[in-house]
Structure formats: structure tokens, C-alpha cells
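User: I'll paste a sequence; please echo it back and then give the predicted structure.

Assistant: Echoing your sequence first, then the prediction.
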Amino acid sequence: SYGFGSDEANNANAAAEIDNEDISAYMLGAMVGFAGFNVAAAYGNNDDSGCASNVNNCAAGDFWNVGAGYSFGPASVSVMYQEGTDDVNGNGRDSESEIFHAGVSYTVAEGLSTYANYYNMDFSADGGLTAANKNEADILILGSRITF
């Protein structure tokens, strides 16, 4: 897919108004499935979308991900990994993100299912030069879903 548009926001400061670059981004992905197995991958690039026009070498970022899943009877399992980078400050120090996901679901009866999702996320801003520029999280979500 490809997206484009005008970024009408500006970063006003005391000396001048600074316009943002227009939006221009794309993403390519594919999924293949056979006998309950699915494998998918994607890549996206935001180029300089939304970057302040006065920031040289600004990169709004790119990302890639891969995932796989398997469904068997009333149950399914899946895993996914994603990495992304950007340099919106144009300082040559990338901000990075890594996300790992694993999930399982089980259909108890028609209209009633349970699920568990685990996420491990790791974010670092400006090359993660200091501990203040890093953020890590482990998240576990347990739930049930009722539909009628």
C-alpha cells in the first residue's frame, strides 16, 4: 500500500514557522497459508513524512516484521517479531524499536473463546545513549471473548 498527503501542522517557534514534509509512505507485505499454517512478512518505509523541513537528514523511519501462526481444531497459536528505526532529529543516532509477540487462543464453545497474549517490547531513543533513552516492557494479556 502507498499513502500520501499534506502535513498541515507546523512547528511554530519565536523566530519562524517551520513546515513539515508531506506524507509519503509505503508498505509491502505477503502471507502464505497451507493446512492450518500461515506465514507472513512485511516491510514499510515512511521516508521523511512529517519531518520538520529545517531538519537535515530526517528519516521518519522504516520497519519490517515476520509472523507465523497455526490453527488446529478449536485452538490457534501465533508468533511475531518486528523491528523499526527512525531518525526524526536528523542527528545520525537512530531510535529503534523491537517487539516480540506470542499468542494462543481456544474456542470453548460457539461464541466463547479464551486467549493469552505476551508482548516483549524494547524501545531506545537517539541510539539509546543513556538509560533515560530506553524503555522496556513485558506485557501479558489474558481474556475471554463473547460474541452473539
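The beta strands are 2-5, 23-34, 37-45, 59-72, 75-87, 95-109, 112-124, 134-146. The CA atoms of residues 120 and 145 lie 23 Å apart.
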